[in-house]
């Protein structure tokens, strides 16, 4: 999923501005097809309660922006 976001969505956004797309440059430099898929998972279950309390401490306008990145927040 990260590969799709970087190679598709970010590339389209960057083409609107006169900036070079860093992912495309890196792919050519290192002679690779793109970003590798994530293969590591970290269990944060024991910290989930603290994390959600911290996030809920933000004001509503900040939380509205966070919902763009954290579904169902």
Topology:
Blueprint: H1 2-15, H2 22-30, H3 48-56, H4 60-66
State the helix count: 4
Helix content: 40-55%
Could you state the order of secondary-structure elements as H and E?
Answer: HHHH
The major β-sheet equals: none
Unreliable stretches (pLDDT < 50, length at least 5) are none
Which structural class do the helices and strands define? mainly alpha
Report Rg: 17 Å
Q: What is the overall pLDDT average?
A: 79
How far is it from the N-terminal to the C-terminal residue, by CA? 20 Å
> How would the global form be characterised?
flat
Tally of distinct domains: 2
Number of strands: 0
Strand content: under 5%
Report a brief summary of the structure:
By secondary structure, the protein is mainly alpha-helical.
Notable features of this structure?
73 residues; mainly alpha; 2 domains; 4 helices; 53% helix; flat
Walk me through this protein's architecture.
53% of the residues lie in helices and 0% in strands. It has 73 residues and is an all-alpha fold. It folds into 2 domains: 39 residues, no CATH class; 33 residues, no CATH class. The longest helix is centred in the N-terminal third of the chain and has 14 residues. The protein is flat, with a radius of gyration of 17 Å.
